[in-house]
Design a protein that fits this description.
alpha/beta
Length: 119
Amino acid sequence: MSSSISMVGLGNAARAFAARALAGGNAVEIIGRDSAKAKDAAAELGGATVGTPGSAPAGDIVVVAVPYAGAAAVVKEYGDALRGKIIVDITNPVTPDQLGLMNHSVKHANFSLGITLLS
């Protein structure tokens, strides 16, 4: 059984996850703030489509693959459009310099949607 997956993010982890999902026969949508980079990523992956930032993700599964500190903002931005979808968080709580860990309170915000991010 194949799934439809929306990948929010354009980094190495997002591309690797998307490549494996495509190889497994899943439909993949790439969403990123930079439309040109999202189109490049989709073309590089072959078979992925490009979503529009801020529009409802098309996938039944939404993978959050953005820098750790931005994950809560992504969930808040998409709001009710995430209701009923499976959310997969592949962010890592490391500081941008890769030398330490981020403060977990940055990510585990209280959302009015009742969505809890598990990492």
